[in-house]
Design brief:
The structure is a single chain. It contains 13 helices and six strands. It is of the alpha/beta class. The chain has a six-stranded mixed β-sheet, with helices on both faces. Strand 5 (about 240-245) and strand 6 (about 250) form a beta hairpin.
């Protein structure tokens, strides 16, 4: 395994989630409340909750104090402290901090840590499946005044994100696209043909499922904006819904909020053609692109 593979498999968000789950199980095994644990590290019950959900960086001193409280000895204590240090290491995407806002960098960590990513798109091909030329055309539309160098850096980030789908332990990616995504010629015919071919290739991957909501369904799916739902392998962690806006993003993890989006996603899947039809639909779209 290369160092790059390891970076993508064990980024800091994923490591924080792993450590948080371990700490929660240790606390519960000793019958210690979050309030008591928070007191031990000079913090609050909510701080312990955020740590156990992997939402915040870990101070090594806090982890050491909690391990003492939980009665954890060697070698497990050293292993967990080492995990805390690795979880605090800079993420690969921090190098792109000059071209994308902090709220988006948070999404990259969740995307990397997820075991299942479900996405609904009404306008564009999902970023995880975009070709570089298609991404360039989209980014030029969205950031019309940005310098060319900034656009290229954003493309580099988008292509780097896509490694999550081809790493040794990739998440399952299930995307539902409105048919308009295939018919709108972003970047012109040549760019669009290459993009549809890339979707055909993606649709054949074992960890990728694509569905298309056809025009004859009438209304364009359950929403006119894109959203994603991320699920994690640790059953203690809630699903997270990500809704991107023009100047920010919303992250939702309260059960009631998540349930609304899960229902919308299920509706999109039911309105869409079944996955077995996707290759035929993409082939048809490819042949209809103007030459």
């Amino acid at each position: 395994m290369t160092s790059t593979d390891q970076d993508y498999r064990s980024g800091p968000t994923a490591l924080r989630i792993q450590l948080g789950v371990r700490l929660r199980r240790l606390r519960q095994a000793r019958g210690i409340s979050r309030e008591a644990a928070g007191w031990e590290i000079r913090g609050s019950e909510s701080k312990i909750s955020r740590m156990e959900l992997g939402r915040v960086p870990f101070k090594e001193r806090d982890v050491a104090d909690l391990l003492t409280l939980y009665g954890v000895g060697e070698p497990e204590s050293s292993a967990l402290l080492s995990l805390a240090r690795r979880a605090n290491a800079p993420a690969w995407w921090r190098q792109f901090g000059e071209v994308v806002p902090p709220w988006y960098l948070s999404y990259l960590g969740l995307e990397e840590a997820a075991s299942l990513i479900r996405a609904y798109e009404a306008h564009y091909v999902p970023g995880l499946l975009q070709t570089a030329d298609y991404a360039r055309a989209v980014l030029r539309r969205e950031h019309a005044t940005a310098p060319a160098a900034e656009i290229e850096r954003r493309i580099e980030l988008r292509c780097s994100r896509q490694r999550v789908l081809t790493r040794p332990d990739p998440p399952q990616f299930w995307a539902v696209l409105d048919e308009a995504v295939l018919r709108r010629e972003i970047g012109g015919p040549d760019v669009m043909r290459a993009q549809v071919r890339a979707l055909l290739e993606a649709a054949r991957r074992p960890n990728v499922r694509l569905q298309i909501v056809p025009f004859h369904q009438g209304a364009a799916g359950p929403a006119d904006f894109p959203f994603a739902i991320m699920r994690f392998s640790e059953p203690e962690l809630p699903d997270v819904v990500y809704v991107e806006q023009l100047t920010g993003a919303i992250y939702l993890d309260k059960p009631g909020d998540v349930e609304h989006y899960l229902i919308a996603m299920e509706r999109a899947c039911l309105e869409a053609e079944p996955p077995e039809r996707t290759v035929d639909i993409l082939d048809d779209a490819l042949h209809q692109i103007a030459r």
